[in-house]
Design a protein that fits this description.
This protein is α/β, with parallel strands linked by helices. Helices cover about 35% and strands about 25% of the residues. The longest helix is centred in the last third of the chain and has 22 residues, at about 245-265.
Length: about 350
Amino acid sequence: MASKVFLAEINPDESFQSIQNKLFQLFDAADFSTVFQKDDLVAVKTHFGEDGNANYIKAPFLMPLIQKLKALGSKPFWTETNTLYTGRRSNAVEHMQLANEHGFSFEATGIPVIIGDGVTGREETIVEINGRHSKKAGISPAVAAADSLLVISHATGHLACGYGGAIKNLGMGLSSRKGKLYQHSVVKPRVKTARCKGDGICIKWCPVKAISMIRDRAVINDSKCIGCGECLAACRPGAIAFQWKIDSVLMQERMAEQALGVLKAKENKIGFVTFIMDVAKDCDCLPSKTDDILLKSLGVVASKDVVAIECATVTLIEKALGPLRDKAYDIDFTPQMKYAEELGMGSSAFELVKV
């Protein structure tokens, strides 16, 4: 049976007030009042943007959704988990400081930021699942404790998955540090010696000190490497490579299993909103570049079905751009959606309803 996905089309030159009004209508059309109720503690999962990234969805665009939650009498809070890789989002203190700098402060939005996996990212809640690769998932304790969850995603390309949207936002964005490590550990980087400039940037960013310099060239110790991909993101000469086409399917399936853990913890109490605006080649975790943007503005979609909203989002993007694999990364991104449907997380059949 097809699941409904609601679309509010947005033009690149549309006024902020018009966008706000459409988001109010989108919330109502998706029937989110049956998901979020009076006195609910609502975890609002979004991405605060990495340090140096300007493509993330800014807080003012999300405020109509927060206002609707408050109007229902619920108690929303922004939430994220700490990153596996080194940086300002790898611990709750700097993560909250960055969120504040990027406009997600209590003063600016009227709701607090709660980093969902503790000060250092080591806290987790275990949820039993029946996956092909794992029987349990480690997720954010804050999300597990909340009454309901609003997942706000930003559709982008992704260097490991080809595409990142709502499933990635659940599976990577709300998993514990161990859960993130479990997903990434299927891939290991290698150094293209001829391209290595010996600048040592990869050494600085490696969270487990798995990289050393030998004869002015980087060398990766496979026994220490956790496959987090931070060296790949940091290396500007492009001397770090992953075998994504080989390993991406397993990574995507593990990501879907972690996402299933979140769904099970919040069964029938989740709404999904995905912004198809400033669609970039890379996700919001990487520093943005001026030539990153593939699609400026198409609209915002909402649904109660995570698989349907993913399929609808990709369909809309590819209708506007052509095959996403030709524009971002040449990686088959469909395994995450196919496996999520196999796990019973939703339906790939969708009915698109314009609001």
